[in-house]
Amino acid sequence: MTAALALLTRIPVRTDGSRAGAWAFALVGAVLGLAAAAPLLLFAPLPGSVLALAVLAVASGALHLDGLADTADALAAPTPEAAERARQDPRVGAAGVVAIVLVLAVDAAALAILAGASPGLAGATLVAVVATSRAVATVAPFVAATVRPGFGQWFAERTSPRDAVAAVASAVAIAVAASLSFGILVQTAGPAAGAAFAPAVAAGVALLPGTVAATILSRLRGGLDGDGCAAVIELSLAAGLLAASLLA
């Protein structure tokens, strides 16, 4: 789990860098989700949602947002050579800025809707979806057409099918636990009982778009790279939150 913490967070842990710890991605995601959920319980829906996303970005070093931006810039480039230059450029291009703004806007709007229905529902859903989005990254190398040299290849070589199964199974367990926990609260107060299924539904929805995104990105980019994996995480998160907001 130490290796997963080192890859997915900015928590100062010691690791030799030889392992990815993919089996624990969902568990680390749940920890991140719990930390990000705190503002949802302390502030009004909109500022709480924005602060929750800020906590998530800071705790993860905004690595996945950066990967999303680099992938968008690469996809907007006219040639494969220009795409690779755009991806490696430390400056964020117009396509990258638009991608980050749109994804964060969807995340914030969906979270605000959930928090407006119930802060507890928003928090439980965020935990479930953050965990699932990280688990999707472990599946990405197996559904990609090919894997590009670099971090993508390094990660694929250190992620086994057993790791992916463990990560997805953990994400499912976390989502079910989040739904059951919120369901108990619904019996005494808050939104309709149907909303208690939002965390589990959100996690289930996040799995499919994330897997499809990994497949499509790998074909458009001539292989899946580290930035592509990061983009998959962000797209899975947005899809899960959006789906949950429809049940609030």
Task: Tell me the layout of helices and strands.
Blueprint: H1 2-8, H2 25-42, H3 45-59, H4 63-76, H5 80-88, H6 94-117, H7 119-143, H8 151-157, H9 161-186, H10 198-220, H11 226-245
Helix pairs in contact: 2-3, 2-7, 2-9, 3-6, 4-5, 4-6, 4-11, 6-7, 6-11, 7-9, 7-10, 7-11, 8-11, 9-10, 10-11
Explain what this protein looks like in three dimensions.
With 248 residues, this protein is mainly alpha-helical. It has one domain (2-6, 21-245). The protein is built from eleven helices and no strands. Helix 2 (25-42) packs antiparallel against helix 3 and helix 7 runs parallel beside helix 10 (198-220). It is globular.
What is the count of β-strands?
0
Please report the distance between the alpha carbons of the first and last residues.
Answer: 33 Å
- CA-based shape: globular
Give the mean pLDDT: 89
- Secondary-structure element sequence? HHHHHHHHHHH
Total helices: the number is 11
Rg over CA atoms, rounded to whole Å, is 17 Å
Q: Helix- and strand-based class?
A: mainly alpha
Uncertain regions spanning at least 5 consecutive residues: 187-191
Largest sheet: none
Strand content: under 5%
Tell me the helix content: over 70%
In the residues, how many domains can be counted?
1
